[in-house]
Amino acid sequence: MGSKRVLIIDDEETIQTVVQFGIRMTAGWDVLSASSGAQGIQTAQAEAPDVILLDVMMPDMDGIATLKALQSHPGTEQIPVIFLTAKAQTSEKYQFNRLGVSGVITKPFNSLDLPEQIAKILDWSLGR
Predict the structure, then answer these.
(1) 81 lies in a domain?
(2) Number of domains in the chain
(3) What distance in Å separates the CA atoms of residue 45 and residue 73, rounded to the nearest whole number?
(4) Residue 32 maps to which CATH number?
(5) Residue 16 pLDDT grade (very low, low, confident, very high; cuts 50, 70, 90)
(6) Relative to the CA of 86, which of 11, 25, 93, 108 has its CA 20 to 30 Å away?
(7) By mean pLDDT, which of 37-41, 44-48, 93-97, 108-112 is the weakest?
(8) In this structure, is residue 128 part of a structural domain?
(9) Distance CA 105, CA 36 (A)
(10) How much is the pLDDT for 127?
(11) Model pTM greater than 0.85?
């Protein structure tokens, strides 16, 4: 399996760093990062990542608005999106699934387990 490219869109730099570290260390995938929904959309259009990890609660443009913008653009509509969120009640998960996200990973998470969680959600082989 070739190297996957993951885009993390989160307004918290510490989350970006932890995600990058965990994914690079355990899976060797490339990780791109963006600090806002608008920046994430631009990065997704320019870089065409294999998956987007998207924070739900961000200032200005939240994850749901970002998801809808990604889904409405021909260059990014096919990219799977996984929400990263502290809000993971059954009702929210139901709402997220209706929006067309590929999955939900709840915060806090273990960054070293992220590649395995992503692979499970997207039915990827980790090739170990």
Answers:
(1) yes
(2) 1
(3) 9
(4) 3.40.50.2300
(5) very high
(6) 25
(7) 93-97
(8) no
(9) 19
(10) 61
(11) yes
**What number of residues does the chain have?**
128
Nearest to 54 by CA among 14, 105, 128: 105
Q: Which long-range contacts (CB under 8 A, 24 or more apart) does 13-22 make?
A: 15/55, 15/84, 15/107, 18/111, 19/53, 19/111, 19/114, 21/111, 22/110, 22/111, 22/112, 22/113, 22/114, 22/115
Closest listed residue to residue 87, CA positions, set 57, 124, 109: 57
Residue 91 lies in a domain: yes
Mean pLDDT, the chain, whole residue set: 92
Residue 94 has a pLDDT of 78
Cis peptide bond upstream of 108, omega within 30:
yes
Which residues, at least 6 apart from 125, have a Cβ–Cβ distance to it below 8 Å? 1, 119
Count of CB atoms situated within 10 Å of the CB of 93: 17
DSSP the chain: -PPPEEEEE-S-HHHHHHHHHHHHHHH--EEEEESSHHHHHHHHHHH--SEEEEES--SSS-HHHHHHHHHTSTTTTTS-EEEEES---HHHHHHHHHHT-SEEEESS--GGGHHHHHHHHHT-----
State the residue range of the domain holding 87. 5-121
